[in-house]
Q: What sequence folds into this?
């Protein structure tokens, strides 16, 4: 029988209700618990201005610790956060990619820099308020309790019980070593249950609203945030018409190749089904079904081409004309069947694929979305409607060095194909897909088209309720 009072746990207490209940439950279970609040930015830092005021969060966290009856400490990790998260964000956006700072924050800060500080304070484990679950597969032992092999225990990370709050996606880059020191006390609870426990325990954070925005920075206007370091340079917003795809060789090859891969009786859906506005109707986390594709015998070069996003190179010619009673000479663009210039922007690096807000493009019956950005030409390409061809893709690639297996014992070998459920953004319903491992990288071929696949995002794959691995989308 394990004596929990001998196990020292450091709770990352943020001042929110989730971490507060995590600390409360661990204390109730008899662990030796202490709290630590992380400061990951300074208001004086010109690149880190958000609406979230850390002083208030710290004050609430300290009150929670006092209420629970546990020691409270403070750690300044702003230097590490800037170097490992913020600088990474700016670098990725400058290249026209879409990073996820929350994933990096967990990998580099909460379960690395913070864990290091906690262990120096004597902690055996670090606990957070994430909605996810952890299981341990114990290794085989001999009669004396020693491991029979050198593999040791295996740590599994499972989806949280509350489907509306599952946060495994944000933990997709954790290693076995990090998981061995992690605890997730509220993963088996729903959000309403967490609120109820907080109220019954009279915790000061019981009614505190959930935090939003960039991890530890708060809810900020992203373009304004990025402009503090990335230069604003005006460029054209170009609307791409449907006619463009009829003459684009890559798009036509991809559609023909996908059609050729289909089993008899299966048809190729070319666009995603959407609800009004921005809500995605994609199959709501349905069980992994049988693949619609035949045996995939494509070469690495063909897979690369299948995962390559369509690029846009629409040239606009000008013409002169005379206008008004005085016949003033003016210049305008000639009509182009493939598209038109519909506006101006302040820098292609400030936009991401799938974005709708902040474009300033009017005069359309349906919503207008970003379908591509080109930081070299400083152009932003948009398309009208949820079903625009440029908004959806079937295949993506992850470079070898960016592939991360949470379960190294289940790692795929080159030449191997496996069926998993995958998501490319937080809260997206899991999507059925085939993972294709090659020497040149990992390719993910979805059963149905996916909206807004963007380089820099994390693709995460699951076997049932267990998250197995992830990788940064290269294309």
A:
């Amino acid at each position: 029988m394990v004596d929990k009072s001998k196990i020292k746990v450091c709770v990352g207490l943020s001042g929110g209700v989730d971490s507060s209940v995590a600390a409360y439950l661990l204390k109730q279970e008899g662990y030796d618990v202490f709290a630590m609040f992380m400061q990951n930015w300074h208001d004086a830092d010109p690149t880190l201005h958000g609406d979230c005021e850390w002083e208030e969060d710290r004050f609430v966290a300290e009150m929670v610790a006092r209420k629970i009856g546990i020691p409270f400490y403070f750690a300044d990790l702003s230097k590490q956060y800037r170097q490992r998260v913020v600088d990474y964000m700016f670098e990725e956006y400058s290249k026209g990619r879409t990073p996820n700072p929350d994933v990096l924050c967990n990998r580099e800060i909460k379960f690395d820099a913070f864990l290091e500080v906690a262990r120096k304070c004597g902690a055996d484990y670090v606990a957070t308020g994430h909605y996810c679950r952890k299981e341990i597969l114990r290794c085989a032992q001999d009669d004396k309790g020693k491991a029979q092999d050198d593999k040791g225990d295996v740590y599994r990370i499972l989806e949280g019980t509350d489907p509306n709050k599952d946060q495994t996606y944000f933990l997709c880059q954790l290693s076995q070593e990090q998981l061995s020191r992690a605890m997730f006390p509220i993963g088996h609870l729903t959000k309403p249950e967490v609120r109820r426990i907080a109220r019954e325990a009279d915790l000061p954070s019981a009614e505190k609203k959930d935090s939003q925005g960039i991890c530890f920075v708060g809810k900020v206007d992203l373009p304004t945030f990025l402009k503090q370091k990335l230069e604003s340079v005006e460029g054209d917003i170009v609307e791409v018409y449907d006619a463009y795809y009829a003459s684009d060789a890559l798009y036509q090859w991809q559609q023909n190749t996908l059609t050729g891969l289909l089993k008899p009786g299966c048809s190729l859906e070319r666009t995603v089904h959407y609800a009004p506005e921005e809500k995605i109707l994609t199959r709501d986390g349905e069980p992994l079904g049988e693949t619609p594709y035949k045996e995939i015998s494509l070469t690495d070069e063909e897979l690369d081409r299948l995962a390559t996003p369509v690029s846009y190179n629409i040239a606009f010619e000008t013409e002169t004309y005379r206008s008004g009673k005085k016949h003033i000479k003016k210049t305008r663009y000639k009509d182009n069947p493939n598209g038109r210039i519909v506006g101006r922007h302040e820098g292609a690096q400030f936009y991401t694929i799938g974005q709708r807000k902040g474009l300033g493009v009017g005069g359309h019956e349906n919503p207008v979305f970003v379908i591509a950005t080109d930081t070299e030409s400083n152009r932003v390409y948009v398309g009208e409607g949820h079903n625009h061809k440029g908004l959806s893709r079937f295949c993506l690639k992850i470079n070898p060095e960016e592939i991360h297996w949470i379960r190294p014992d289940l790692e795929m070998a080159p030449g191997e194909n496996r069926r998993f459920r995958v998501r490319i953004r937080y809260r997206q319903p899991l999507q059925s897909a085939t993972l294709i491992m090659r020497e040149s990288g990992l390719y993910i071929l979805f059963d149905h088209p996916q909206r807004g696949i963007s380089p820099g995002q994390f693709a995460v794959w699951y076997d049932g309720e267990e998250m197995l691995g992830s990788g940064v989308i290269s294309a």
Notes: Confidence is low (pLDDT under 50) at residues 46-51, 141-145, 275-285. The first strand starts at residue 8 and ends at 12.
